[in-house]
Write a structure and sequence with these properties.
The chain is α/β, with parallel strands linked by helices. It contains eleven helices and eight strands. It has a single domain, classed as Aldolase class I (TIM Barrel), CATH 3.20.20. Helix 1 packs across helix 11 and helix 7 packs parallel to helix 9. About 45% of the residues are buried.
């Protein structure tokens, strides 16, 4: 099944509202030649969501959030709910990013609850999975990634699984300049696809599996040429319009 490539830029804790608007304007000017051929989203910090949503008006670029809380409302100081993200114009939301897991105590269980909360309001989750360097060196990559995928999707009906994006981000490659080789990436992406088939049958063929982890203009096309790599979750390179556009061009079939 042909899957539309999906590239999402995760801005992390970067960009004021003014800086965010400037980046979106630069992207808009460069994106016109590839519009409609690749699905594109950007995930600014919460404080810039409104500014970016307004700047994206009339654009094919979609808005994503970097995280979400699983409750609709309540005494959760500093958190943002799925209905709030929907109200802000978000089409997607990232959950389970390794930085959230490592620095802020994210678990497989909280990832699952966030997935359910997002789907409940119609926001499409981008579910991040990936192993640490120690886990890879111990030969546990497929075990760790398989557990993360299975726990995040536990109990979801096949139609909901089909709405997800999975982002494989080897932790040892995030922000380090190191990138999984094409063979390493395809091995894990293929294993994820196989597990998705076990969990959701034919719906697995509609799930996009992004690669993330030091994605750059000079490696994006090679990675996204792999049969089970359906796009990219881009960190630092998404903060520069020229670099991000080059990565998007690398996703064109």
């Amino acid at each position: 099944m042909a899957r539309t490539r999906f590239v999402c830029g995760n801005w992390k804790m970067h960009k004021t509202q003014a800086e965010a608007r400037e980046l979106v304007r630069a992207l808009g000017a460069l994106l016109a030649p590839v519009a409609g051929r690749v699905q594109v989203a950007v995930a600014p910090p919460f404080t810039a969501l409104s500014a970016v949503q307004a700047a994206l008006a009339g654009s094919a670029v979609e808005l994503a959030a970097q995280d979400v809380h699983w409750e609709k409302q309540g005494a959760f100081t500093g958190e943002v709910s799925a209905p709030m993200l929907l109200d802000a114009g978000c089409r997607h939301a990232i959950v389970g990013h390794s930085e959230r897991r490592q620095l802020f105590g994210e678990t497989d269980e909280t990832v699952r609850k966030k997935v359910v909360a997002l789907l409940g309001v119609g926001i499409l989750p981008i579910v991040c999975v990936g192993e640490t360097l120690a886990e890879r060196e111990a030969g546990r990559t497929l075990e760790v990634v398989g557990r993360q995928v299975q726990n995040a999707l536990q109990g979801l009906p096949a139609p909901d699984v089909a709405r997800l994006t999975v982002a494989y981000e080897p932790v040892w490659a995030i922000g380090t300049g190191k990138t999984a080789t094409p063979a390493q990436a395809q091995e894990v992406h293929g294993a994820i696809r196989s597990l998705l088939r076990d969990l959701a049958g034919e719906a697995a063929e509609r799930v996009r599996i992004q690669y993330g982890g030091s994605v750059k203009p000079d490696n994006a096309a090679e990675l996204m040429a792999l049969p089970d790599v359906d796009g990219a979750l881009v960190g630092g390179a998404a903060l520069k319009a020229d670099d991000f556009i080059q990565i998007i061009r690398g996703a064109i079939r």
